[in-house]
Amino acid sequence: MNSGNRRLSARPFNTPGMSMIEMQLLVIVCATILAGVGARAIGQPVVAGEMAVGILLGPAVLGSIAPSLQQHIFSVDALGGLQAIAEVGLMVFMFLVGTELTEPASVSGRKGDTRLILWTSTVSVMIPLLVGAACSWLMSREMDIPAGQEVRFALFLGTAMAVTAFPVLARMLADHAMLATPVGRVAIGVAAVIDLYAWILFAVCTTPVQTLASAVTVAKLLVAPLACAAAIWVARPRIAAWFARSERSRQPGEIPWLMLIVIATIFAAAVLSRSAGLHPILGAFAVGCCFPAGTAASEKIKRDLGSIAGRVLMPCYFVLGGLSMTRDAFAGAGFDLFCLLLAVAVLSKVFGTAAGARMGGATWRTGLILGMLMNTRGLVELILLKEGLSAGVITPRLYTLMLLVALVTTGMTGAFNTFFISRRLFSQPLTCGEVNG
């Protein structure tokens, strides 16, 4: 009996899976630190280096240099724990994305910029969406579209071309002290609205075709953006007022309890979202839209969750994304396809944004600046691609090429901010007064 108890208690510490997850986390965290330092050294945001970690530790790089080592650390049979950690990180990250969204007027600081933001964001999504969908039909043979997925893939590729990584862009502008400039304020507002469009399109892309034909599912997809808007305009102010009223009477020890309540709410919303036939990250996103800002408690919760998700949990998601890549992506016409996807992504996004900004009252110069900023795809694209691969919308080969496109476009925006933008360029007004200037 005693020996059986000893064996039972020792088992969790002796199984290969338990020891392997610790090794995986050690490798991921160390690689993330080094990649972040390297990205900073070349003028890129830390998140660009973190995204590159997944590629470096995957079969495309480490698997080519040391295949036995890569297979030993990240064998398919030992990824269950890493997958669970990545899913938790994704839910927390989507909550944090939702907390950053707000009304266009309050983001820019000027009500007159609302028209510019709405025009720019709408056209910045529509043109890449249409161009990407058209490309999917023109290049169907080269893209290896899975059978029966042609329509959903057309929408998926258009969405991939249209997205902007709002969290990455916000971090870039903050790093360059551009958030307080006129262009920076409008860029954040445009990216926030694009982010909302992107997650609506994401919900459509990840819904199975047979389910999408259901009137009930269509109704749910139509209700989703209204729910997010209601969360931002109705629920968030009321929750913020409650936080403000309870601020004086709250004891410091109560904040951890509030954080646990927030985390429980995030996962409850994810469960409800999945039960409703939508992707669970949309539930976490909706909870973030309700969460207030500006109080000591709410800012501390956001800061602490952001530190955990950004530095430990999400890198696991990046690595899983890199592990899904394939080494033969550039075989045959792969390189030509990559260049074509990259050209379509950059040109449709930059000039689509510029056209929208011009319709909103800005000059072409300002529109092109905004277009370069909106060209960053980062984490949003990675999430879209990985979930699209899991849903069978794209193949591993196309996933690899599009993931590299996301990394290159994010790097292009980082280089644009670092080397080609002066603060004087960001200090001019953007609306009607500049049209004739």
From TrEMBL:
<feature type="transmembrane region" description="Helical">
    <location>
        <begin position="331"/>
        <end position="352"/>
    </location>
</feature>
<keyword id="KW-1133">Transmembrane helix</keyword>
<dbReference type="GO" id="GO:0015297">
    <property type="term" value="F:antiporter activity"/>
</dbReference>
<feature type="transmembrane region" description="Helical">
    <location>
        <begin position="397"/>
        <end position="420"/>
    </location>
</feature>
<keyword id="KW-0406">Ion transport</keyword>
<keyword id="KW-0472">Membrane</keyword>
<keyword id="KW-0813">Transport</keyword>
<feature type="transmembrane region" description="Helical">
    <location>
        <begin position="186"/>
        <end position="205"/>
    </location>
</feature>
<feature type="transmembrane region" description="Helical">
    <location>
        <begin position="116"/>
        <end position="139"/>
    </location>
</feature>
<protein>
    <recommendedName>
        <fullName>Cation/H+ exchanger transmembrane domain-containing protein</fullName>
    </recommendedName>
</protein>
<dbReference type="InterPro" id="IPR038770">
    <property type="entry name" value="Na+/solute_symporter_sf"/>
</dbReference>
<dbReference type="GO" id="GO:0016020">
    <property type="term" value="C:membrane"/>
</dbReference>
<feature type="transmembrane region" description="Helical">
    <location>
        <begin position="212"/>
        <end position="235"/>
    </location>
</feature>
<dbReference type="GO" id="GO:1902600">
    <property type="term" value="P:proton transmembrane transport"/>
</dbReference>
<feature type="transmembrane region" description="Helical">
    <location>
        <begin position="151"/>
        <end position="174"/>
    </location>
</feature>
<feature type="transmembrane region" description="Helical">
    <location>
        <begin position="255"/>
        <end position="272"/>
    </location>
</feature>
<keyword id="KW-0812">Transmembrane</keyword>
<feature type="transmembrane region" description="Helical">
    <location>
        <begin position="76"/>
        <end position="96"/>
    </location>
</feature>
<dbReference type="Pfam" id="PF00999">
    <property type="entry name" value="Na_H_Exchanger"/>
</dbReference>
<feature type="transmembrane region" description="Helical">
    <location>
        <begin position="51"/>
        <end position="69"/>
    </location>
</feature>
<feature type="transmembrane region" description="Helical">
    <location>
        <begin position="308"/>
        <end position="325"/>
    </location>
</feature>
<feature type="domain" description="Cation/H+ exchanger transmembrane">
    <location>
        <begin position="31"/>
        <end position="414"/>
    </location>
</feature>
<dbReference type="InterPro" id="IPR006153">
    <property type="entry name" value="Cation/H_exchanger_TM"/>
</dbReference>
<dbReference type="InterPro" id="IPR050794">
    <property type="entry name" value="CPA2_transporter"/>
</dbReference>
